[in-house]
Amino acid sequence: MGIPLKRGQLIRSYRRIAKDCAYKVGYRVKKPSLDTVKTICDELRREGRTEQRTVHKGTLFTICNYNDLQTFQKTRTEHLTEQDKNESNKEYMLKCFERFWSEYPRKVEKKKAREKFLRLSLDEKRFKKIMEALRTQKESPQWKRDRGQYIPHPATWIHGERWEDETAPISDDEPMKDFLGQSLN
Fold first, then answer.
1. Helix or strand holding residue 9 (H, E)
2. Domain limits at 80?
3. Domain count, the chain
4. Taking the C-alpha atoms of 103, 104, 107 and 113 in order, what is their torsion angle to the nearest 10 degrees?
5. Of 19, 105, 8, 123, nearest to 62 (Cα)?
6. Are the CB atoms for 41 and 52 separated by under 8 Å?
């Protein structure tokens, strides 16, 4: 019968540890030398992180404070919290999209627009900027011309991050001009 192991204990030879630490570089397998493995194990023992005892099949390594180092429960709880955050973030994003959609003047390809919108990394400040730009651009001559013919599809507007576009303020008494400078009015 062998040695009964407790939590945080492991029986390994130094050769086996070197083999366990092997890694590939291209097509070659590299592993640390026995001296490197022994040096690292001795450092861990001197620092009080492990206790080591030679046994028949190799070395018995005992990790000190093993139970304190195990954070599985904490990690599991944090994971659930992150999942909850992601779900509430998706709900927030969907509400923001519905507000965006209600104000966007051209109602086409809603599904595509929603998909593009949900890919945005959005916080309250950025959403406010998007909505302000949308309201400004809705009032622009380009969007009002020819009964809204030149309003981009919402998915295109979102994908192109058109809220970042600069809009030049146009006064009511200034006549609209084409690219040659000729009056359109």
1. strand 9-12
2. 73-164
3. 2
4. -110
5. 8
6. yes
* Distance of alpha carbon 32 from alpha carbon 9, whole angstroms: 22
Alpha-carbon separation of residue 108 from 22, 123, 148, 152, 156 (angstroms): 56, 25, 13, 10, 11
Report yes or no: 153 and 108 within 8 Å, Cβ to Cβ. yes
For residue 3, is it within any domain? no
Judged by DSSP in three states, 50 sits in: strand
Query: What's the distance, CA 90 to chain centroid?
Result: 14
Any domain includes 41:
yes
The answer to whether 9 touches 51, Cβ cutoff 8 Å, is: no
Least confident of 2-6, 99-103, 110-114: 2-6
DSSP strand pairing (9-12 vs 58-63): antiparallel
* Helix (H), strand (E) counts: the chain: 8, 5
pTM tops 0.70: no
Contact indicator for 170, 144 with CB cutoff of 8 Å: no
User: 80 and 59: one domain?
Assistant: no
Higher pLDDT, 81 or 89: 89
